[in-house]
Amino acid sequence: MRKNVKNNVSWVGKVDWELQKFHGDEYSTHKGSTYNSYLVEEEKTVLIDTVWEPFAKEYVENLMKEIDLNKIDYIIVNHGEVDHSGALPELMKHIPDTPIYCTKKAVDSLKGQYHKDWNFNVVNTGDKLDIGNGKELIFVEMKMLHWPDSMATYMTEDNILFSNDAFGQHYATEMLFNDLVDQCDLYQEAIKYFANILTPFNAILRKKLDEVISLNLPIDIIATSHGVIWRDNPMQIVEKYVEWAKDYQENQITIIYDTMWNGTKELAERIAEGIAIEDKEVVVKIFNLAKSDMNDLITEVFKSKTVAVGSPTIGSSVLHSIAGFIHYVKSMKFKNKKAAGFGCYGWSGESPSVINERMKEAGFEIIGEGLRNKWNPDKDSKEAAVQFGREIAKG
């Protein structure tokens, strides 16, 4: 069922209420997602993006109810990833010669995934497509945001930026627009999306945001590829991206640990106590990695100025959960953050030094030498953990 976005622009996508994981098993989507596809009906009829492959037949059948597919003059592919382009093979069975406009890298992506040589038309930043009624589509390459092939499409007169993955959220809703949904949920899903998907590209993103802002285009609507469409003060999410892309942090210290027999858990709680004693303004959060969602934790790290990571020593190293978590943290390329390692041990006690070394490799400034505690914490070692927390708070 189509939904009106503005004038002759309609949403013809799919709401995926059941989605729990994305990018394979890499990204948790607690609130589902949407695959946003748009139909523009001016003198020329344009389809902007499709939906994920599992919904391809449903998508094409629904589209056929709305319009004669042969009336589609152009197809715009802002991004070749399968959650955007997955319905193309099914669609192109019906209209195989319809011109597809995309970047050069997107041609490579689409051919590589679907092994079809469709009627590709390569566009670059600034290229325009006349769609009639005095309106044009202007293409803006968005390389590495977050794939090499990504681009955005701007529609003149209606002042709509079809922004692709930028400014989106994995958020299932029938309400379509940002002013119609719970603002806390929207903000949480937006910052989680940024933290887990776009953070590694902060340097590129800063330049691209400056470029987009410098174009001085009037933007009344930002039509994303996932989640809600920004129509109420759409630049608010652009302003957030500018803020988040500047090595963002809040006054927060996050403690993340895994434990075998709760000794490291006890240290984590005492460290938090020490942080709170030393700095009554800082937000302190504790998470047991084994009982927490990885992507939610990355969001907390994104917001934090300091992260304390704890693991007992096993095999002269750390628990594999902690090792995997730090590996993921490293891939995020965080900047301007501090870290400290801690953990219990029975006979060798390498875990704090291993944590510190790996967090340093991940780009964090290390506080001290870490906290090592032999066996379960007693009264003195609990006090030492409190003191360690105070030192972390001092930075």
The number of helices is 12
Helix content: 25-40%
Q: Mean of the pLDDT scores?
A: 96
Percentage of β-strand residues: 15-25%
Question: What oligomeric state is this?
Answer: single chain
Which parts are unreliable, with pLDDT below 50 for 5 consecutive residues or more? Answer: none
Main sheet strand line-up: 1-2-7-8-9-10-11
CATH topology of the largest domain: Metallo-beta-lactamase, Chain A
Rg, rounded, reads 24 Å
CATH H level, superfamily name of the largest domain: Ribonuclease Z/Hydroxyacylglutathione hydrolase-like
Alpha carbon gap, first and last residue: 54 Å
CATH C-level class of the largest domain is Alpha Beta
CATH architecture of the largest domain: 4-Layer Sandwich
**What is the structural class?**
alpha/beta
Biggest beta sheet attributes: 7 strands, mixed
Q: How many DSSP-defined strands?
A: 22
**Judging from the principal axes of the Cα atoms, what is the shape?**
elongated
> How many domains would you count in the coordinates?
2
